[in-house]
């Protein structure tokens, strides 16, 4: 069955200016289709479906059931939100929050275990917005009595990097697969309400096989997967023998450093307020990075590297420089680009999966804790586009908000979270490309050609033209979101 969506303003990189779009089954029609229905678009702008190139889908879905602290502007508001949630918990139940950011608080003082002393027998875990640090109370520290925690973690209750990932997470209660699947269904619908039709998600094998795989075909969302399992020797043979073809596994991810907010991103120059350069983590710390990359490439998969500080980005460039181009090796985040001209030029030939909102949130911290020159090298989107760097935008949800219009605004205004213009803006059409076709092509999705004939019919009908929005005031929102020619939001 085919229908035509007429009286629209179609924005599509391949063929701008159209006023109608033919949908033939799950594909874009070519004008020869027998049209069964005409739908009046009412003059609305239509774009390809939005693609989030970097999310943690299962984690994000699960976190939506926790306490959201991302909007809390002080210690007091964080504690109030936690207390409100605690009133509905059974005795001894875990209380889990996420999203606090001390950089937005009046005194910028990070929490410690003493902040959480008033919750009785509830084990309390509060994840920082970057997920590279968590603060816990004494009840949790008692649970971790036999864990290999650092002395600093036991003293302060602040667990950073390996303390959080390797000691805390295994000790925390996990949702059942059924509960996680229910949360994932809700999250996929919620993402559709924001115009997101596809994501690349970072997942562990267990989450993929037990949470995503059983319901992938019913989710209103296209998904590709980059695997987080990264302990050597890598076992990747199972990927070719998966029981399901959806979602498609396209690569593996390694971590080289931490984050700017936690002062664990690895920098060439030391942090001014800590006197240290940040951390090498995991494969980079053990000098196993090149071995890991070779194993991923040998399996025909895409190596992707989390690198935020300029020293970590430089190391990622060196490791990825000889990966065949058809594998689309990517640096994830690349927040502080190298000052070395040769390394920078080499980086611009690589795929960069970046988050403009991270730049907006981290800019005030960079101003306080890094040398002045670092601000000019903090994700310089204008310069990167001018130099031909392949860019895909994402959110890193749940590390930051999944709202794509926050990403769009951060990119086209160059503003930080305090409203200060820090960087040269990019054009709205450039931002939209990085959120649609460019992102899709980079992360192995079939919508990279845009709304061309025979391409998947994934599109968004907007209530106002996003290409005309200046990033201030209320953003445009989807009137409806479509995947494969079917309206997925609002649900029909």
Summarize the structure.
The protein is of the alpha/beta class. The chain has helices at 57-63, 75-86, 138-143, 151-156, 162-171, 177-193, 205-212, 237-240, 282-285, 289-298, 310-320, 341-347, 356-369, 373-376, 381-386, 404-413, 428-434, 437-442, and strands spanning 2-6, 9-10, 20-24, 27-28, 35-40, 45-48, 50-55, 67-68, 95-100, 124-128, 133-136, 158-160, 196-203, 222-227, 248-255, 302-307, 330-333, 351-354, 391-393, 459-462, 478-483, 486-489.
Would you give an account of this structure?
It is a single chain. The protein is of the alpha/beta class and 492 residues long. The protein folds into 2 domains: 52-56 and 177-448, Metal-dependent hydrolases (TIM Barrel, Alpha-Beta Barrel), CATH 3.20.20.140; 66-171, Diaminopimelate Epimerase, Chain A, domain 1 (Roll), CATH 3.10.310. The protein contains 18 helices and 22 strands. It has helices at 57-63, 75-86, 138-143, 151-156, 162-171, 177-193, 205-212, 237-240, 282-285, 289-298, 310-320, 341-347, 356-369, 373-376, 381-386, 404-413, 428-434, 437-442, and strands spanning 2-6, 9-10, 20-24, 27-28, 35-40, 45-48, 50-55, 67-68, 95-100, 124-128, 133-136, 158-160, 196-203, 222-227, 248-255, 302-307, 330-333, 351-354, 391-393, 459-462, 478-483, 486-489. The strands form 4 sheets. An 8-stranded parallel beta sheet has the order 7-13-14-15-16-17-18-19. Helix 6 (177-193) packs across helix 7 and helix 13 (356-369) packs across helix 16 (404-413). The radius of gyration is 22 Å and the shape is globular.
